[in-house]
Amino acid sequence: MAVYTDVSDEELTAFLVEYPIGEGLSCKGIAEGIENSNYLLTTESGVYILTLYEKRVNPDDLPFFLGYMEHLASKGVSCPTPIKGRDGESLRKLCGRPAAIVSYLNGMWPRRITPGHCARLGEAMAEMHIAGQDFGSGRANDLSLEGWRPLFEATAEGADRFGAGLAGELATELDALEAGWPAHPDDLPTGVIHADLFPDNVFFRGDRLSGIIDFYFACEDFFAYDLAICLNAWCFEVDGSFNITKARRMLTAYRKVREFSGLEIEALPLLARGAAMRFLLTRLYDWQNKSADALVTPKDPLEYLAKLRFHRDVKGPGAYGLD
Amino acid sequence: MAVYTDVSDEELTAFLVEYPIGEGLSCKGIAEGIENSNYLLTTESGVYILTLYEKRVNPDDLPFFLGYMEHLASKGVSCPTPIKGRDGESLRKLCGRPAAIVSYLNGMWPRRITPGHCARLGEAMAEMHIAGQDFGSGRANDLSLEGWRPLFEATAEGADRFGAGLAGELATELDALEAGWPAHPDDLPTGVIHADLFPDNVFFRGDRLSGIIDFYFACEDFFAYDLAICLNAWCFEVDGSFNITKARRMLTAYRKVREFSGLEIEALPLLARGAAMRFLLTRLYDWQNKSADALVTPKDPLEYLAKLRFHRDVKGPGAYGLD
Questions:
Q1: Domain B9-103: which CATH class?
Q2: A81: pLDDT strictly greater than 50
């Protein structure tokens, strides 16, 4: 939850002149999204989301993110569509920051995950993967394998504060991941993935998935890595136990839309360990680098250590409910 | 800025069944309001504000606040109207807290105050004072004279940390205020006042005042005390200087709608000192009692010390632009 930038009425009015969406009626900072400042904007023509991109987003990546969202929306994927200004551009500046207006999606993210939610997610993720296949401009995943060792080195020294022996365990794990990680892009099917499909980025109305948001980690990587991230984010219970029913529903719904290969199934445990490592390391980093006036309490790194250990002990796809 | 309570989709759905406003489409925490959790709620019938009342609001006062808003709205004052459930009640419970839905107001609060804003505010405040005159159920102002000494005693010990000699200066000032404060209610015209009319509680569209929000400090007190609060909140520049043009525009616009007496004019400097004391003391208290995980940085108490000193040196109504 965060709003970092205060937009004045004068600045907003001048900004909206560039868009064919009518006069601004109100603009309220919303308590969602950690990386950027998000506002619920109402104008004479409707409701929108206005985003100001704060320092954690590389401005050079924004045309990729916005282009990908536009591409997905044009293919019928329910996601925010960037609104173009009168000059045809969807990216401009507001309060000295890159800024864009996107369409508003109804729905709420699920606080209590059901197997039904996981099935809808699997289906929508597969549709998103397929819809993105002809979206050309790739962006490397800077938070995958190559990014972990620098993050580990930046966090290892203080890691044992979170648990005795944590740095050692992560070092061993990192070696294993580097030794076994699939080679890009020959080993596994690759394309644009969301890479941050946590429950608060997926909206539902009742049991129906109404939209996916927050594409600001999207990148080119293994499709199965997106599944691995979601196994971690959606299929563990609050008490740490793994819910195999949720995993099975997610994976079987996914493969009804996009069949995955035997290689992808085999790779899942390792990919899920890697996905756990990624969030463990960024959470460690956020804890060790949080500013005194941070509006957000960093999330618990150890939640992801438990998930990592679970996948390390997995013997095969049966653990995820697959035959 | 604050959202304290997370409302789940299931809880929201069950809550909305009680209201004739259609199915909920989305509900986003908004980063406005410090005392309560506020959400922008969209339903099939439109946009609303959902408020969950957190611990700083006394639940016993809520019928007064909501009744006052409903009364004002029925008289044509542009303010949020409480939405009644099918049972005729506008106050119920959500997530274990008192909760209400109110109508949504367009507009944005002004970041850069102009004399024109102050004139519109004066006019709207006078209309609000008149509209509230036949609203019977009074609520005493627990943050007026009788409330200051306990607050002073709770904060005096640590006050000098904010400025050498602060506690002593406040003690002397408090004696003067207690000696000179007008007697209730005989000395000055009294009625329901807003008591927290800061710029972020007043919305404009361009130069037009489009609404007043946040009635959760409303109480019975001198009408001129509301003006005194606004002299402090709207007429000082960021550099601490007093803008007499803004004050004159506010007061003359007010008196075109509701003429004030010579006694009220004479009382203004003392009332403005008291209003400065009230916000100085609550800010001191908030600094000394902020929790480590507070989402809000308390506001600077010393800003109000400077305002207090200004009014103490005022010789007469000419200082506020009045003849």
A1: alpha beta
A2: yes
Residue B18 near residue B36 (C-beta atoms within 8 A)? no
Instruction: Determine the pLDDT at residue B187.
Output: 82
Judge whether A77 and A211 are in contact, CB under 8 Å.
no
C-alpha span between A318 and A184 (Å, rounded): 26
Q: State the nearest Cα–Cα gap between B182 and chain A, in angstroms.
A: 39
Look at B28 and A30 and tell me if their CB atoms are within 8 Å: yes
A30 secondary structure, DSSP code: B
> Does this chain's domain A9-103 share its CATH topology with A115-320?
no
Is the model's pLDDT at B1 over the cut of 60? no
Q: Which distant-in-sequence residues (6+ apart) come within 8 Å of A130 by Cβ?
A: A257, A258
Q: Which residues 6+ apart lie within 8 Å of B226 measured at CB?
A: B125, B129, B193, B194, B195, B197
Helices and strands in chain B, H and E counts: 9, 9
A31 touches chain B (CB under 8 A): yes
Short-list A292, A133, A144, CA closest to A228: A144
Find chain B residues with C-beta within 8 A of A112's C-beta.
Answer: 8, 10
Distance, CA of B240 to CA of B238 (rounded, Å): 5
In chain B, what percentage of residues exceed pLDDT 70? Answer: 95
**Residue in B with minimal Cα distance to A24:** B107
Q: Please report the ipTM that was assigned to this predicted complex.
A: 0.84
Identity of the amino acid at A303: E
Rounded to a whole number, what is the distance in Å from the CA of B269 to chain A's nearest CA?
A: 32
Q: Is A6 on the interface with B (CB under 8 A)?
A: yes
What tokens does A108 get? Answer: 């709420």
Q: How far is B228 from chain A (nearest CA, A)?
A: 26
CB neighbours of residue A286 within 10 Å: 17
Is 70 exceeded by the pLDDT of residue A23? yes
Q: What is the pLDDT of residues B187-231, one digit of tens each?
A: 899 999 999 999 999 999 988 999 999 999 999 999 999 999 999
| Cα distance between residue A270 and residue A293, in whole Å | 37
In A208-320, alpha helices (H): 223-234, 244-257, 262-288, 301-312
- What tens digit of pLDDT does each residue of A126-162 get? 999 999 999 977 899 999 999 999 999 999 998 998 8
Section A84-90 average pLDDT: 96
Q: What is the pLDDT of residue B174?
A: 97
pLDDT digits (tens, 9 = 90+) for B73-84: 999 999 999 999
How far CA A129 is from CA of A117, A135, A213, B254, in Å, comes to 18, 10, 15, 62
In CATH terms, B115-320 corresponds, of 1.10.10.10, 3.40.50.300, 3.90.1200.10, 3.40.630.30, to 3.90.1200.10
Query: Domain spans of chain B?
Result: 9-103, 115-320
Average pLDDT for A299-306? 91
Q: How many residues does chain A have?
A: 323
User: Cβ B107–A25 below 8 Å, yes or no?
Assistant: yes
Q: How far apart are CA B260 and CA B251, in angstroms?
A: 9
Radius of gyration for the alpha carbons in chain B, expressed in angstroms and rounded: 20
